[in-house]
């Protein structure tokens, strides 16, 4: 499995994801396979890339994956430990801490959103970012 520019399907300097047989994978399949192979979660990888986990999950569906994310996937495949060590996430901000506290208390996403003045989706996104930071600190 690799992310490469050296394939006929790679156009205009845009990398493609190949499986172990050298077949081009869709963005969604490739991301999932690489993260599973290296033992990294979607929230953790999104935090490393500086994007929201929901954005990462939309690649190949309703969003076009960026070259930055593809290059980060390549680096993760080469040495996941180095990527984890190099990309230490920022500490949790107040919103993230509050969302996690409300989650721990047992509130659902809609209730958390209402309490914080967010939509349910915004509360979920803040929670995913916070969980990605926590996973990064724990190393998994």
Q: Can I get a quick summary?
A:
This protein has 140 residues and is mainly alpha-helical.
By DSSP, the count of extended strands is: 2
**Main sheet characteristics:** 2 strands, antiparallel
CATH architecture of the largest domain: Orthogonal Bundle
By DSSP (H or I, 4+ residues per run), the number of helices equals 8
Low-confidence stretches: none
From the N-terminal CA to the C-terminal CA, the straight-line distance is 21 Å
Run of helices and strands: EEHHHHHHHH
What is the strand arrangement across the widest sheet?
1-2
- Helix-strand category: mainly alpha
Q: How much helical structure, as a percent, in the residues?
A: 55-70%
> In angstroms, what is the radius of gyration?
17 Å
Task: Kindly identify the CATH topology of the largest domain.
Answer: 434 Repressor (Amino-terminal Domain)
What can you see in these coordinates?
The structure is a single chain. The radius of gyration is 17 Å and the shape is elongated. It has a two-stranded antiparallel sheet. The two termini are 21 Å apart. It has two domains: 2-86, 434 Repressor (Amino-terminal Domain); 94-138. The mean pLDDT is 85. The protein contains eight helices and two strands, in the order ββαααααααα. It is mainly α and 140 residues long.
